[in-house]
Amino acid sequence: MESVKSNNQEILCGLCAFDISTLDLELLQSRAKYPGRLSRYNLPMLKARNKNSIPTEHGWMLHLPEGGPSAYRYAQVDDYSPLARNRFLWREQATLTLRCRVSSPSLPGTWGFGFWNDPFAVALGLGGMGRRLPALPNCAWFFYASPENYLSFRADRPGNGFLAQTFRAPRIPSGLLAPGLFGIPLLLIKPISKWLRANLAAKLISEDAKCLDVDATQWHAYRLQWSQNRVEFTIDEEIVFLTETSPRGPLGLVLWIDNQFAAWRPDGSLGAGTLANPPAWMEISVISVQ
Q1: Distances (CA, A) of 216 to 105, 120, 182, 238, 280
Q2: Which of 212, 220, 219 has the alpha carbon at shortest distance from 241?
Q3: Residue 206: beta bridge partners?
């Protein structure tokens, strides 16, 4: 999987190549700017969830093999998989900092990093997973979604692209949400789906987002500062988005890349599935939560 070419000072890591001298210089500069934050080891609960997530000396390499639209492919690192949702680690006043770059500015599927409550998971505590049932979404993250996605409940907010995005929803017990599952077939009726999106989801779930004009293939320093009344998003020490829509904790830390899409569009139409993808990767370094 990995080989070293000493002649041209390259490391081939899975599907991508890095210049050692450039990478080391960047990491040394990061060490000076972020003392004590250079390794992933100050986050002991942060674990890879499959073999596509490779630990590196200073962070993680998440990669997707090339493939067609018939299979789900992902790489994910998180700190919450063994936990029940009410035991997730992070609450307001948490600040995430990291450096990131990706292989292409237009990858099929989604990728990103930040805090969320894993709202759509169903886990019964088997195989080392925490017990979780679906919940309303609470999250704050840097999030990329390819054009097939539409992940917003409001017509006046972006639903795809590279976003700084937050969701805030009441903590309704999962048992009280369960009867709503019987109404899912109604979403297949477009006028009803459109009404539910605009008059139920958009009013129950607060959200805010901004499209970011960033070349994500280059190294950037990202910071997400989450407080009780606002969330501040910073790239390379410049504030790019500030919102008062702050999620409710506790939340978990997640970093991922995958080939799936999901869409609930303003006209009520639905879409979900997996996409063909080229070889793809996301590299993370200098990660810390304080």
Answers
A1: 6, 27, 41, 15, 13
A2: 212
A3: 168
Residue 8 in any domain: the answer is: no
CA 213/CA 221 separation, integer angstroms = 14
Q: Which of 114, 208, 197 is nearest to 158 (CA)?
A: 208
pLDDT (tens digit per residue) in 53-65: 999 988 999 999 9
CA end-to-end distance (rounded Å), the chain: 34
| Single-letter amino acid code for the residue at 281 | W
235/224 Cα distance (integer angstroms): 9
**Which of 43-47, 83-87, 130-134 shows the lowest per-residue confidence on average (mean pLDDT)?**
130-134
The CATH number that applies at residue 175 is 2.60.120.200
**Does some domain include residue 130?**
yes
Domain count, the chain: 1
- Would strands 10-13 and 2-5 be described as parallel, antiparallel, or unpaired? antiparallel
pLDDT at 183: 72
Q: Is residue 170 part of a domain?
A: yes
150: Cβ–Cβ under 8 A, 6 or more apart, which residues?
159, 160, 262, 263, 264, 265, 266, 271
Domain coverage including residue 253: 38-289
- Torsion sign, CA atoms 154, 158, 159, 163: negative
Residue pLDDT, tens place only, 114-168: 999 999 875 544 344 455 678 999 999 999 999 999 999 998 999 999 999 999 9
Angstrom distance (rounded) from CA 250 to CA 70? 35
User: Residue ranges of the alpha helices (H) in the chain?
Assistant: 20-33, 174-177, 190-196, 202-204
